[in-house]
Amino acid sequence: MMSSISRSIPSSAPPRPPPPHYQTFLTPVLHRRFAKACSVGFIACYVEAFVISNKSSFFWAIFPLGWTGLQAIILFLLSVLPVLILRISQLHVGARSHATVFHAMKAYIGSFSTYSTFLTHSFASLVFVLLYLWSGSKEDRLSFIIEGKSYERPRLNERYLYLIFFACYTGFIQAALHLYEDRGRLQLPHLYVWPTEDEPTSVPDAKSLQLSPKAAFKKKMIDVPSGAFYMALVSACTAPFAYIPFRGIIWHYTLVTAKTFFWLNRSSTLPSFPVGAGMFIRSLWLSFLIGTMWQITNLAFDIYFTQMPLTADGKTVSEKSPDPNGTLVTGLKASQAPLTQVFSYTASLMNVC
């Protein structure tokens, strides 16, 4: 009788609610890191907008609310932000592996990500070059139409057409490098300073195993100019040869279209080849600026997103949960989110230390 009564009495303890998911606490941290990477990219855009701006009035060239500030906003929205969004869309932790080179080529050719990479970089590079052309002076002779003498009709400027082609070509080269180096991969341990075998207990605190963002920038920024110059040299040296097969087609169709809107010279013969020493140096400089802007942006993304999973007050992400261990376990089980798994695993190592 007593046993039946005791079994009918409900338990006084309510069922334990499931712990909050690790992703719930990690997402705001990642958003703040993305905002920091964007801020670094915007600073790079502002500096380069000043570099390519017209210096006829130094005050308006450096004034944030002038044409330089507008250029910086356009560069950020159309040249840097698309690359950052591309990094987010292609984000993965592990290295991509293929059985053979043929399988790798087949995977890249049939992937939408490949075409979006080429399109994004070419468009972003084109925006930069267009802003550069619009900021030029008449002495540069880089306008779409060249005004002739008083008795001559205006002429189509092939130097302008070449720089437009060069912008797309530079984006193509940068996209190929992006795919070759697999920049969508986030290499988390590459900024960590782990203890050596000789001194396995020399680092007692796991939070000190990683360089700070400031130290990481100081360490990695040295390689930015050399990397940008190397890619600029490749683009500037190979672009004239890549332009030759398309030269006639570009000139013909652009001239036909331009004659609809402008009273141009009737001659449709090709002018002299637009690439000389001056154009080579100009294209080299443009490609260097574009490469520097993207390298700084990618570097900022890598540095901030490879930081350990800590909040602003220095605590691990799961410590804000009412059930830290349960939240950490949900992150370890998130097989569909490899980045969440890696961060939760890193946090578990920090808790052990």
TrEMBL record:
One Pfam family matching this protein: Ndc1_Nup
GO-annotated molecular function: spindle pole body-nuclear membrane anchor activity
Q: Which biological process, per GO, is one annotated for this protein?
A: nuclear pore organization
Read off the InterPro entries from this record.
Nucleoporin_prot_Ndc1/Nup
Q: How does it sit in the membrane?
A: Multi-pass membrane protein
Q: Where in the cell is it found?
A: Nucleus membrane; Nucleus, Nuclear pore complex
Region spans: Disordered = 1-20
Keywords (alphabetical) are: Membrane, mRNA transport, Nuclear pore complex, Nucleus, Protein transport, Translocation, Transmembrane, Transmembrane helix, Transport
Show the stretches that span the lipid bilayer.
Answer: 34-52, 58-86, 107-134, 160-180, 228-253, 273-294
User: Which intervals carry biased composition (Low complexity)?
Assistant: 1-11
* A cellular component term, taken from the record's GO annotations: spindle pole body
Q: Look up the domain of life of the source.
A: Eukaryota
Xref: PANTHER family:
NUCLEOPORIN NDC1
Q: Which family does it belong to?
A: Belongs to the NDC1 family.
| Name assigned to this protein | Nucleoporin protein Ndc1-Nup
Q: Which organism is it from?
A: Choiromyces venosus 120613-1
